[in-house]
């Protein structure tokens, strides 16, 4: 791999900079470069090739106690070339091609491929699967906020949090924006591009001090500024959540129903989809490896991946191999109905790609999700927990104690103790444990789904998890 660092800067930046220039949205030069790389690879002896060019621009401001602590901007274009010689593959990347660099990069890639091991599953996508229609998914906000605007958003979020009675200090507020895009060109004739903007605001508040200190946060992220929650809402919510966590207790060890707040409920979807990743299935390192077509959930549960959702945080019209993407029910009426596949894992499993290839400039494609969500149920969150005499409402999860091979689940958690259907006192420093297969069997969903993250779920209820406390 040939690489050099992306340009970065810290400290004060101009209020507009390159982000206001039209050339930021013009990917024609990247498209031309990708096409040249593919053509150079063919001339150098590659049987097939594809090239990706990735644009990244980001700026962010961090504020504490009304003062800017850090202001940062970075931007750069990177390219990657994948070549195939027979069933041998190599990937090279760079962000600096000048002079005869295109030819040299292609020659180096072909030389690497010739000494790589054979892999009977590698190869470009079948041309019949390539995307031909590119719907407008409204991914790009043409108005890029200035540094001054980001500072205003962060300051207003912090002011709103500190105005909440009981908040003792700020843990910091931030606001950011960025643009990311990709160009993909293949030797089979595919040429696709997309650009996606993103903006965010976050706030962390603190209550208490020393060993009694507690903190919580709120965050909003969207492609378009108009879809963000206001800084005031983000700050106030962060403050209210923090105050509610003051003076937590430890719960006694027991086995009770557990309610997952929407901001952590998506993790249960993530664990399932990670296990349904075709790469894990092919390696036989997933607790779901023999369960395709099996009922894992109640028959009302659907988990959907939708890459074509308008203004979705991870939406795009084609995958990293140029394959057309589509809405996919990973779980349909409670049944595990599909793996997430790219071309190589699909070939290994004797299936067809689902259009879930992702890649960076320095890696070959591998499967991954887009916009995941678990569809809502019919009960309100209050109705979902109304019959719980004793239980645990989780608002925060800590650590990554989930075994994707066995399905064993154990994570640190904080939240609130439930008594007679109501949240009562704050709880911290406990562990919740179970097995994902058993957890999914009892999962029930409330009706409060909203699309705020890359993975979204409504409030969820799981029966009989073990709470390890005092």
Describe the structure.
With 470 residues, this protein is of the alpha+beta class. The chain has a domain at 7-238: 2-Layer Sandwich (PmbA/TldD fold). The protein contains 9 helices and 20 strands. The protein is globular, with a radius of gyration of 24 Å.
Summary of the model, kept short:
By secondary structure, the protein is α+β, with helices and mostly antiparallel strands. Helices cover 21% and strands 35% of the residues.
Largest sheet: 7 strands, antiparallel
Number of helices: 9
Oligomer category: single chain
| CATH homology superfamily of one domain | PmbA/TldD superfamily
- CA-atom Rg in angstroms: 24 Å
- Overall mean pLDDT score? 92
CATH-level-2 architecture of one domain: 2-Layer Sandwich
Tell me the distance between the termini: 51 Å
From the spread of the alpha carbons, the general shape counts as globular
Please mark out the parts with pLDDT under 50 across 5 or more consecutive residues, or reply none. 1-20
Helical content class? 10-25%
Identify the CATH class of one domain: Alpha Beta
Class of secondary structure makeup: alpha+beta
Elements, N to C (H/E):
EHEEEHHEEEHEHHEEEHEEEHEEEHEEE
CATH fold type of one domain:
PmbA/TldD fold
- The fraction of residues assigned to DSSP E strands is 25-35%
How many DSSP E strands?
20
